[in-house]
Amino acid sequence: MQRCRRRSGAALRIRRHAMTAPRLTQPIFVVGSPRSGTTLLQNLLSRDPRLYRLGRESRFLWHRLGGQEVTGTYPGRERVEAAYLSELYRDERTYTRQEQRRWALRSASQGTPAQYLDLPHDLIAELSTAEVGPFADSVQTETAPFTLPPLHATYANDTTGDVRMVDKDTGHCWRLRELSKAFPDAQFLFIVRDPVESVRSLVAGWRHPTWFFTYRMNADLDIDGYTDEHPWGRRWWNFNLFPGYEQLTQSPLVDVCIEQWSAAMRPVVMHGMPLVDEGRAMFVTFESLVADPKRTLGDIADFTGLATDALVTGGLNEAYMSMTDATFDPGSGDIPRLATKARDVLDPVAHLLGTTYA
Questions:
Q1: In a domain, 96, yes or no
Q2: Closest C-alpha among 57, 63, 30 to residue 215
Q3: Which CATH number fits the domain that encloses residue 214?
Q4: Which residues, 6 or more positions from 296, have their beta carbon under 8 angstroms from its beta carbon?
Q5: Distances in Å between the alpha carbon of 122 and those of 99, 103, 127, 141, 219?
């Protein structure tokens, strides 16, 4: 009899633990092509203190799970949810300038240049002027390869109950069907940027000497406008791999970037429209976010149920929108002429964007 009571007590404790264990609820996925403003939008949404985040793109997590975008594989909800919960945090304290400097110097002593860290560009230039060169004055809207660890953060796995997160990964363009089925309460924010400007920014990213290297290839690339000008890039693919990328490993860089953008946006248009019809997704443009951030973020807050005041107050323009002020010009006159071909991809959602980018 005593043994039965013990078992019942253990079972009750297990049930209580199961009821209070952290669980993802209404996750928000920010989805878009590389260089479309996904990082900017995620950072803006993270101003709501209730949201958990990873602090960087979730590509590292998906690679750990074996769910790379190019393979189309999906590990299943339980593994995905557990992986997110093991990394998500909130309530991070901001690094002081002195702490940022100390971290950069510590990393440099271990062989990591300052420009590989997510630090202010003026600090990067101050610590490594010779290496930064013409990029010291430009500001990219992507996180650096190495993000600083969160300070005094609350981790999701140390909490109980519901955990709501905001996550962005450009690889989500190829995971929409799986994510929408695995997380039926998820909300999706699709951000779209003018194809010409997106391609221009992709070209600039490919040519950047320190950022955006994503995949080390097994064979040399022969990409005109990239490997001929930067031999150090022969084994490095930048941004996403996409279905059919193998056919472009010996193509001009502009062609690679046009298809990189198009390959990401096709599934967004195809699978995003049904999600919009179901009330689970909305489209926003990079241009509206930059030109009128308060109105755009207000619309997003209404859709997601986030705190409007948290998103649109507190030094919005200075702290965040300055990320888009400067753009490194890749200097390719063919981009506007060639990238306009990609605009047709957006025709089915032009009424949602309020523009055809013509």
A1: no
A2: 63
A3: 3.40.50.300
A4: 284, 288, 289
A5: 15, 15, 9, 16, 37
Q: What is the pLDDT of residue 135?
A: 40
Q: What is the pLDDT of residue 306?
A: 96
Q: What is the mean pLDDT of each run of 10 residues along the chain (358 residues)?
A: 43 49 94 92 91 89 74 78 94 86 81 72 68 41 68 90 94 92 96 91 83 83 91 89 92 93 95 96 94 93 95 64 44 67 86 85
Which residues have CB under 8 Å from 309's CB, separation 6+?
none
What residues are paired with 213 via a beta bridge?
238
Amino acid identity for residue 134 in this structure: P
pLDDT of residue 296: 94
How many Cα atoms within 13 Å fall on the side-chain side of residue 49? 9
329 located within any domain: yes
Give the number of domains in the chain. 1
pLDDT of residue 357: 82
**pTM over cut 0.90:** no
Task: Let me know if residue 155 belongs to a domain.
Answer: no
Residue range(s) defining the domain that contains residue 293: 24-53+160-353
Sign of CA dihedral 172, 242, 353, 206: positive
Q: How far apart are CA 117 and CA 211, in angstroms?
A: 10
Relative orientation angle of helices 195-207 and 253-277, to the nearest 10 degrees: 130
pLDDT at 38: 92
Phi, psi (5° rounding) for residue 228? -70, -30
Positive or negative, the CA dihedral 11, 26, 212, 121 is negative
Residue of 193, 226, 211 whose CA lies nearest to 33: 193
Which residues is 190 bridged to in the sheet?
31, 283
pLDDT given for residue 110 in this prediction: 75
Residue 218 belongs to a domain: yes
Place of tokens 């149920």: 305
CB atoms within 10 A of CB 89: 19
pLDDT value, residue 119: 75
CA dihedral 236, 209, 248, 224 (to 10 degrees): -130
